[in-house]
Amino acid sequence: MKTKVITLSGISAALVAIVLILGVYLSEIFDIFALMFAPAFLCMPLYVDSKKGAFLSYLAGGLIAVLFTGGQITNYVFFAYFLFAGIFPIVKYIAVTKRFNKVLFNVLCMIWFVAFAVGFYYYYTAFLGFPIETVFNIDPKIYPLIVGICSAAVYFLINGYVFSLQLIVFRLLKRIIKEEQK
After folding, report:
1. What average pLDDT values come out for the chain (182 residues) when binned by 10 residues?
2. Angle, CA of 158, 13 and 23, to the nearest 5°
3. Are 151 and 80 in contact (CB under 8 A)?
4. Inter-residue contact 44 to 12 (CB < 8 Å)
5. pTM value?
């Protein structure tokens, strides 16, 4: 059983690193896809119920990608991966397997995602100096409110996407990995 966990975790970390590196270097077309596909590969160790393997794949894949991109930690792909996109599938899996209260879990995760999105907005505007005022003709004081409302709605799409993603990955791995005979 440990061999499966180690193998799936290693493959997962490598695939996450490849996708994130592509997301950084091909940022105009592949950045959103990188943030959508990286969580898929993090579901691989969860198939054998290895939360530790998934978390280590999350860290290893992200750190390998940071190293291979020359330490571009300020790139928004890494910001989004480390603060939400990478860890959310693991947290969701733990919540489902431990049978947490679904409503409370979704409210807490939605608050987490809204805080992430508003932080992402401030990261873009204050840290990277992106002039958001030139894109939209709206009072800049209400941007965080608009970002918060939109991200609350988007959270439910992401939640459903991650759930579907885990089911697809588990079905594919069930076909590939042979179960141990008892």
Report:
1. 83 91 82 84 87 91 90 79 88 90 91 87 75 66 81 87 88 80 45
2. 60
3. no
4. yes
5. 0.82
